[in-house]
Amino acid sequence: GLPEAEEPLSSSSSSLRNAGVLVVDEDAAFQLGLKTFLREYVGFEKVFSATSGEEALELIQNEESINVITLDYRMPGLTGIDVLEKLSENTPRALTVLMITGYPSDELEKRFRSYNSSKLITSQFLTKPVEFEKLETIILQSYEDLKASQRLTKTLTGEAHDETAPITPEDSSPMGPELQQSLESLEAKVTLATTK
Q1: Counting beta carbons within 10 angstroms of the beta carbon of residue 59, is it exposed (0 to 12), middle (13 to 18) or buried (19 or more)?
Q2: CA distances from 175 to 1, 134, 138, 168, 183 (A)
Q3: What is the pLDDT of residues 18-41, one digit of tens each?
Q4: Do 143 and 68 form a contact (C-beta atoms < 8 A)?
Q5: Other CB atoms closer than 10 Å to residue 176's CB: what's the count?
Q6: Residues 189, 173: Cα–Cα separation, whole Å
Q7: Which residues pair with residue 127 across a beta bridge?
Q8: Phi and psi at residue 188, in whole multiples of 5°?
Q9: Residues with Cβ within 8 Å of residue 6, at least 6 apart in sequence
Q10: CA torsion, points 110, 78, 186, 172, in degrees to nearest 10?
């Protein structure tokens, strides 16, 4: 079989086998750190990235595995809110969006949350710098909320049951000291690169 090193370190990965995540951020260092974290630690198999709103919308349209999106607010061209506006008008499938911004305000958070619907879940508003360790729980919870929403929609419309098993707390093992250390070093590199 494949060498064990190829497997993501998080044991919750079995439920994330077909889930895709899109990181939308103009900051290359933050984007790289978050992509590495989502693939290596959280266990997402498909991690995509975009540096602008336009690029993000194109990827969401063309890449059917994308369910989870982390979205920056300030970007060249379309802002994060502009992206949500366009998705709310025409989302190709159910999505959960987490806004991660270095420019938070109550007004922005209110606008972000106002787009929340069964097809576009906007319940997580986070401020940079983000602690990656806390982010794992938040992203997995967002993915679970999306799955629950999809199951509910299928139940209401009488469609077949969703085979995707929910991620239960006992699936996610606590971080070992080595994993904790490498995660801290990854966070330090990202913080260093983003503060230059």
Answers
A1: middle
A2: 26, 12, 16, 16, 10
A3: 889 999 999 999 999 999 999 999
A4: yes
A5: 10
A6: 25
A7: 101
A8: -60, -45
A9: none
A10: 50
8 A C-beta contact, residue 72 and residue 101 = yes
> Residues 105-132: what's their mean pLDDT?
94
For position 194, what pLDDT does the model report? 61
Task: Confirm whether pTM is higher than 0.70.
Answer: yes
Say what the pLDDT of residue 1 is: 54
Report the alpha-carbon distance of residue 169 to residue 167 in Å, rounded.
Answer: 7
Tokens of 55: 């690029």
- Residues 56-103 pLDDT 10s: 999 999 999 999 999 999 999 999 999 999 999 999 899 999 999 999
24: nearest Cα among 55, 61, 46, 45? 55
Distance (Å, whole) CA 123 – CA 137:
14
**SS in 3 state form for the chain?**
CCCHHHCCCCHHHHHHCCCEEEEECCCHHHHHHHHHHHHHHHCCCEEEEECCHHHHHHHHHHCCCEEEEEECCCCCCCCHHHHHHHHHHCCCCCEEEEEEECCCCHHHHHHHHCCCCCCEEEEEEEECCCCHHHHHHHHHHHHHHHHHHHHHHHHHHCCCCCCCCCCCHHHCCCCCHHHHHHHHHHHHHHHHHHHC
Task: Considering only CA atoms, give the Rg of the chain.
Answer: 17
